[in-house]
Amino acid sequence: MSTTSDNKTAARLPRGLVDRTADDIRAMDEMTSKIRQTYELYGFEPVETPIIEYTDALGKFLPDQDRPNEGVFSFQDDDEQWLSLRYDLTAPLARYVAENYERLPKPYRSFRAGWVFRNEKPGPGRFRQFMQFDADTVGAPSVSADAEMCMMMADTLEALGIARGDYVIRVNNRKVLDGAMEAARLAGDTLAGVRLNALRALDKFDKFGLEGVSLLLGPGRRDESGDFTKGCALEGDQIAILLSILGDQPLHSLADTIAASVRGVEGIEELKTIEELVRSAGYGEDRIKIDTSVVRGLEYYTGPVFEAELLFPVTNEDGQVVRFGSVGGGGRYDGLVGRFLKEDVPATGFSIGVSRLASALKTLGKLGAKRTRGPVVVLVMDKSAIASYQTMVAELRAAGIRAEMYLGSSGMKAQMKYADRRDAPLAIIEGSNEREAGEVQIKDLDLGKEMSKEIADNETWRASRPAQVTVKRADLVAEVSRMLAAMAEG
């Protein structure tokens, strides 16, 4: 426990976590509402699973393959069973579908939004808690379900205000990668670790290019800081085969490379089908593109994999201008639900990194630009008349006007400062004189701020009484409504 010098507990936020302000929450709600509308347009239904699952339900599909028993926050309950905070939304969905398999419609189309947790070292842009927004189709073996995922993702990005040309959905197939591994003599259980490292190397293509990936597949790579990453130690012809699937390669050029692999050829045919489906629906290569360099990290993918990439430039922490990069991805995971059942269940899905996508939208000025005002604040000038102030607030709320009564114990100056900090558009003032006259004062706080910049002394301020009107008490709601409408138009 951390304490201060007077033995009080220190207020400190754990590393890798963030507090969210009202503006953050409203912006996130605005974004997720648009995502939800698009998913529902495609016929997907919401479902919610708890943030805690039995650890064995996560199986071997943990986020960090180097630490298969770590990577998640876990604890034991009172009957000594291990529980874990979910690290993604897919494993809980697999458990939910298996547990309710008989009563669910098949295919089962659902979406979920929620927090996920990673027990790993935090760093820049790397958090222990973050939000995902997933959509999945369970029980559809055809790659038409994968094509639909890609089309829905493109539509979602455009619904959020990202223009064509600023994004692309890139599509590959794990079977093509498996075929390349077979052609490179890397098949078989004994070489599983080598394959995993090779996949990780291929996944660095966007970052390091062909030369960098070649080094990672071979002897290893030393970065600008001098740190050395050990390579896969593959032979030259093996490296050449794996490099041949990277870059902007047409599908027919890969056929000879993986012709001996039944699984690889099947993957190419599935990609051709996806391409035919999305093109026939009007999605051009500028929106959905076949790209055999897409890898995706999680091990449970079994077929098509896809990634949503934002193409517009941003400046990174080192001052370099780079593409914004990936904001989501997914793929087919035909083996995940079947772990709980006696039969295999085909499934495909897509996950959006909500926090990262929100950052992109803010960069484009598409999120959080609209100002959300605070409530109208009714000041308490006379505590013996508090029932009168409460009545005003009730009348304003009944008219659909966001309002609150000051609940502190300070005087008028502090109350006005409070209203300012709340970003209140108006303050309502009723002292004893106003009450006797059957009147209230309404102060336009925005206009008052502007006029105060031109007033040199308090005497002039009091004489001018800027941006303040006096109305009959019975006209309070009507006048507040009029003034708020005028502000909105302005």
UniProtKB/TrEMBL annotation:
Aminoacyl-transfer RNA synthetases class-II family profile domain location is: 30-375
Enzyme superclass (EC): ligase
Catalytically driven reaction(s): tRNA(His) + L-histidine + ATP = L-histidyl-tRNA(His) + AMP + diphosphate + H(+)
Q: What is its main location?
A: cytoplasm
Statement: the UniProt record of this protein carries the keyword Ligase: yes
Report the Gene3D superfamilies cross-referenced here.
Anticodon-binding domain (3.40.50.800), Bira Bifunctional Protein, Domain 2 (3.30.930.10)
Q: Say if the entry is tagged with keyword Nucleotide-binding.
A: yes
The family database entries (CDD domains) matched by this protein are listed as: HisRS-like_core (cd00773), HisRS_anticodon (cd00859)
Q: Name one GO cellular component term.
A: cytoplasm
Q: What is its EC number?
A: 6.1.1.21
Q: Where does L-histidine bind?
A: D88, L89, T90, R118, Q132, D136, R296, Y300, Y301
Q: Give compartment(s).
A: Cytoplasm
Listed PANTHER family: HISTIDINE--TRNA LIGASE, HISTIDYL-TRNA SYNTHETASE
Q: Spell out the subunit comment.
A: Homodimer.
Concerning its family, UniProt says: Belongs to the class-II aminoacyl-tRNA synthetase family.
**NCBIfam families (alphabetical):** hisS (TIGR00442)
Protein name as catalogued: Histidine--tRNA ligase
- The scientific name of the source species is Hartmannibacter diazotrophicus
